[in-house]
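REQUEST FORM: STRUCTURE PREDICTION
Request ID: SP-0412
Submitted by: Lab K.M.
Chain count: 1
Length (residues): 636
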Amino acid sequence: MKKIFLLLLAACTTSIWPQKANIPGKTDWFDPNKPATTYCNPINIGYNFTTHNHNGIPESRRSSADPVIITYKGEYYLFATNQAGFFWSKDMSDWNFVYGSFQRKPGDDDQCAPAAWVVNDTLFYVGSTWNRDHPIWKTADPKSGRWTRHVDKAMLPTWDPAIFQDDDKKVYMYYGSSGKLPLVGTEVDYNTWLPKGNQADYAQLYKATEVEDIQRPYGQIKEVAVLDPAAHGWERFGPNNDMEPAPWGNFIEGAWMTKHNGKYYMQYGAPATEFKGYANGVHVGDNPLGPFTYQKHNPMSYKPGGFVIGAGHGNTFADNYGNYWNTGTCKISIKDRFERRIDMFPAGFDKDDVMYSITSYGDFPIVLPTSQRDQTKGASSGWMLLSYKKPVTVSSSEECLEVETHRMDNGGKKVYEKFCYGPENLTDENIQTYWSAKTGNPDEWLQMDLGRQMEIKALQINYADHKATQYNKAMDIYYQYKIFMSDDAQNWTLVVDKSKNDKDAPHDYVELTKSFKARYIKMVNIHNASGLFAISDFRVFGNGLSEKPKAVTSFKVDRNKLDSRNAMISWKKQNDAVGYNIYYGIAPDKLYNSIMVYGDNTYDFRGLDKGTKYYFTIEAFNENGIGIKNKIIEVK
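STATUS: Completed
RESULT:
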């Protein structure tokens, strides 16, 4: 009896004071259960694969765009185009998928460019449609994936919708996507979701079938934003704002409303999602339906250079500490010109109530919020890119192929290009290229040489899903791998173990719990989600432990005298620099926009506004840090 009692006591003691458990995948430098303090664009969510033959293109590929992030009951919810559901997070880093599809037929879209907003403590949701066939959904328990219909059929044919509830509880809808027509907005009745006013005034709208008729103002529907590309260079269509006249018009879309200090900020995306200059602009007014005035600092969010390119069509939200963030759409546009991802940048309103978003080093690790903070300088971690142009050896490489592409750089026509999948693509900071092994089998590998010992703090693995066979959502999509590090390429230390991972993470960002000094990094595939083991860029962040670059010399901005929307920017190339960041803005203390440039000493900039005086500066950066900014120059 005494022996049995002692055994029971031991069992109870173990349950009350548990022994230290072995966490699967935990190493001295990586803990899969420890929350990250940083994140890295593109946002690392399980981007859905398109439906079969989507847009008439048979190739399997992932995509999403047009994000909306909102807070609900202290947590963050991310909705985006065609995800068969949505994502939630406690910290804006670790995103969890909730299946919640509204797809009716196998080839249909789920929800394009959806809108979400908390109205009267309930989460409301609606997708894009030109028809009078979409419900307005609502839920008080979004994690269940279940929604009820607030309205069976919304009579407003809203494409790229946005919902906004003002402080007086009035509800507004904004919508539109067109190369010819403005964005529009209206107050809606909360119970019926019909536009306010005499319904007879909307008779023509309710029976209209053409977009040109649908997106016009009727009754109390107001024009809220329109493009002026003749004055605003960044609103021009084209890969570098260089297609005039625009073949389909200069697109305005992606409405979003933010209220700050009694002012209403009408946000919009332009000029088209498939271009590097896709950006968010803003007009400002004193009422939710305007009139609105073009903000002098525009675009408000802009990222035409770097690994992540594009920042248009998203939303602005405040985190749980009161800091603002701006989301957007970044492009890949190879397998489909609508092959896209999602990014997110620190944003806010300065002392003059100017709305801004900071995208400088916006595809390097960004510090997550833990309190309210000043974001006018961004939230960069200071961890630098260590992997640019570093040599990589691999287990195998797929042969070059003649591939039908849909790049808008070639006018959007179907063309064939020769694509090669060599290891040099792993470190070129080009999201449109990638390396692919010949198989997706375990033990395919890549090995990078940093050239010398460096301090490694984080990694980002951007999968390319080459020759994938998956279409639409499946719940068994994930990647598994191990990462080793070494000083001599002979004696290896296991630093990151994701051999038990079961979460879909196509842009897997791994923050080490403590830094590791090494020269060589090796990644070994264990399980690939679909297709061949293929990676766009294997990106390494930390500190190169050497000298920062010197200040840039011979910096010039030559504004075109015939067309002041354009300027040629030049500087002297430096051997100690990996790249350069050009900053510009409407005042010396408002240099909020930036352009990242690798491997060049000129930039053809076509994003200025006529009649606006600008200020410019530049800095060089390398693995070791950021050089001193140049003296600010005025450009009239």
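NOTES: The chain has three helices and 40 strands.
Reviewed by: T.R.
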